[in-house]
Structure formats: C-alpha cells, structure tokens
C-alpha cells in the first residue's frame, strides 16, 4: 500500500533539543533550497519547517535503513526516542495568537479499512499533537474535499486545493498533513504607497513595472563583502520574527549568491542604520513536489516497496509523494495582512543607507529560537 506525505505551509518557534533542531533546520533548509533553485528559474517559496515536521512524523514510524535515510536527510538523530524528545519541546512554541499569529497543526487521515499500531498512534497524538481521522478513500471526491477544507481552516484560507484530483486512490493507506500559518505586522509600518510603480530588473533583457513601498527608519543592516550582498532585516511586532532581504550588489548576481546559500541564511553581523528602503509589494504561491528532491538527498528506500515502516503497521507501505504548497503576501502592514492606509511625513536628510530592492533577491523569515521557517526567491514580483 501507498501512503502520502503532504505539507502545507506556514510558520515560527531554548534547550539542548531546540538547539539541535535549529542546527538541523539550517542544514535541511540549505539542502532543500539548493535542490529547488536548480529546478526553478522563476519565483518559489518553500517552508523547510513544515516539511521537517511531516517527514519527522513518518520517520518515527520508520525502521532500519528507511529510518536512517530519513533522519540523515533531516539532520536528526537516527533514534525515534530522541526525535520525539525534540518535537515535544518544539511543540511548546506553537499556537501563538498575540502579538503575532503562529500556528502548526498535524493530521493523519487513515484509510477506514486499515489500522496503525497503538504505540505509533500515541506518538502521533501526544508528541506531534496530531489528530487522527478514519476516512473512506474509495469516495475520492469526498475525501479530497474533507482534507482540503481542514487545510483551509488551519491556514486562514491561504492554502487551497492542496489535494489535487487523482491524488487519492482507493488503496491509499494514510495521508499525513502539516499546516502552518504566520501573520505579523511590521514594527515600522510602511505608509500607503498607492500606485507608486518602478521598474524591477528581472534579467539583463527584461524589466517589469511593479508596486513598491518605501520608508525611512532605523533597521538592522550590513554589507557582506565576501558575498557581495546587502542584508536588511525587517522586524515584526513581538521581537521574535524577522524577515531578511538579501540583495546581491550586482543587479544580476542572484545565481552567484545562491551558490553560497548556507552563508546567506547564517547569522550576520547586522547593525542599526539610518536607512531609506524601497521594496516591492508582492503576493505569490508555490507548489513544490519534494519526491525527487528527497531522492537526490538520499531518501530512496522509503519511496519503494522495500520501505520499512513497521513502527506504523506490519502491512507493507511506502511513501508515494510529498507535496508542499505555500503562500506569502508582503504589503505596507506586514505579512499576510490586509493593506492599511498610513502616511508618515518626516524631515529629510541624507540617510546612511539607501536600500532599493529593484532586482532579484533572496528573502527569508527567521524566528529567534527556531531559525529559518520560510525561504524564497523573488525574481519577478
């Protein structure tokens, strides 16, 4: 039998276990970004955290070589008990409602003709806080609707139609889903920019006219000479979450910068600077098929009939697919928030920094404890 792993997107998160997860998150995010950037020439957005959660939910039920391949890819211990300990600590940091919203929800949809081992059921419920629901996969249209409605409800309707037509088969054993959601307001909101348009340099031969927003304030900033890139950090209310824009100095230097993605998402020596910043407003969605990516990262056996998930069931099951869908909106108010009208009038003097993101850049959202939970490329707003 097959079972599917599907990740929805969105999110944020100190003990020894949390530090271990932070390290694994950084390495996993680096590997995933490298693989996906090779396959995409346009915009994309991935959520390493969501993928880690749902893959870990499968890993604790894997055995022998299947468990080893999954844990190695995730940079987690090849020890189910240790992985459980990490996620018990990690889960304590979700479900934030103020001053920003940050939530993670897990669900196992189990074929109503199948059973899972009681020990795995306990781990799913108590460690991963996963709901378990029996479902009739023979009624594919109804099952698809049930799962998609749950995903929508957990992501404030930002992720729709995660399960596509023909995804579910009558013999599907189970579908594991993680849904993450983040919403935050900028500490320093942008004034309403209306139809302020400016060229964005997509390539050497192409520009597009896009809506920008601008403000002058004090921001954490640095120029990394080794990477030939500027780093600008935009904080959200609450002091836990930031969005960092990494802008190559060369207008067409994104590809060279992506060759050093591990250094890009590592902590930088930022300093408060008086900065006049101009960045594009944008909204985008991505759908990422993780199957081939994971195979290239060494996860091969779990996708074959040689897979060993005896911690879940004695029946022979393997992973059929891993799909992730993401959404992000950046505007004057913050991230995933409706636009607000505000105009700030301040005395003008020469700023220390003029930061104009008018060409392709990397951006990522980082939580001060967990690390990078979204990372993306914007090449065409």
UniProtKB/TrEMBL annotation:
Residues of the signal peptide: 1-15
The record's section on Pfam families has: Serpin
Using the record's annotation, list all stretches that form the Serpin domain.
30-381
- Give the Gene Ontology MF terms in alphabetical order: serine-type endopeptidase inhibitor activity
Q: Which UniProt keywords apply?
A: Protease inhibitor, Serine protease inhibitor, Signal
Family of this protein: Belongs to the serpin family.
Protein's UniProt name: Serpin domain-containing protein
Q: Which species does the entry assign this protein to?
A: Photinus pyralis
Organism placement in taxonomy: Eukaryota, Metazoa, Ecdysozoa, Arthropoda, Hexapoda
């Amino acid at each position: 039998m097959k079972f599917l792993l599907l990740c929805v997107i969105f999110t944020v998160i100190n003990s020894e276990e949390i530090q271990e997860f932070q390290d694994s998150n950084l390495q996993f995010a680096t590997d995933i970004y490298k693989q996906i950037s090779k396959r995409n020439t346009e915009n994309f957005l991935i959520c390493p955290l969501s993928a880690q959660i749902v893959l870990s939910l499968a890993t604790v039920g894997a055995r022998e070589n299947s468990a080893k391949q999954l844990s190695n890819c995730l940079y987690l211990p090849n020890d189910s008990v240790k992985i459980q300990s990490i996620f018990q600590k990690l889960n304590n940091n979700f479900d934030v409602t103020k001053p920003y919203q940050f939530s993670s929800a897990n669900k196992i949809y189990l074929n109503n003709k199948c059973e899972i081992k009681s020990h795995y059921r306990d781990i799913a419920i108590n460690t991963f806080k996963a709901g378990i629901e029996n479902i009739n996969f023979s009624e594919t249209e109804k099952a698809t609707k049930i799962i998609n409605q749950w995903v929508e409800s957990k992501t404030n309707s930002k992720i729709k139609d995660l399960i596509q037509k023909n995804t579910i088969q009558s013999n599907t054993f189970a579908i594991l889903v993680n849904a993450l959601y983040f919403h935050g307001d900028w500490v320093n909101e942008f004034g309403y920019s209306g139809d302020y348009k400016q060229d964005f340099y997509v390539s050497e031969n192409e520009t597009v006219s896009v809506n920008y927003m601008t403000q002058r304030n004090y921001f954490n900033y640095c120029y990394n000479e080794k990477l030939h890139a500027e780093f600008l950090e935009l904080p959200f209310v609450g002091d836990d979450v930031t969005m960092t824009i990494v802008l190559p100095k060369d207008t067409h230097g994104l590809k060279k910068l992506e060759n050093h993605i591990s250094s890009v998402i590592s902590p930088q020596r930022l300093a408060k600077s008086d900065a006049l910043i101009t960045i594009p407003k944008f909204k985008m969605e991505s759908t990422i098929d993780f199957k081939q990516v994971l195979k290239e990262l060494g996860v091969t056996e779990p996708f074959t009939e040689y897979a060993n998930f005896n911690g879940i069931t004695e029946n022979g099951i393997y992973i059929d697919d891993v799909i992730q869908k993401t959404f992000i909106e950046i505007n004057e108010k913050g991230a995933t928030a409706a636009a607000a009208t505000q105009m700030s009038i301040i005395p003008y003097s020469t700023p220390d920094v003029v930061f104009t993101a008018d060409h392709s850049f990397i951006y990522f959202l980082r939580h001060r404890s967990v690390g990078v939970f979204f990372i993306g490329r914007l090449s065409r707003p």
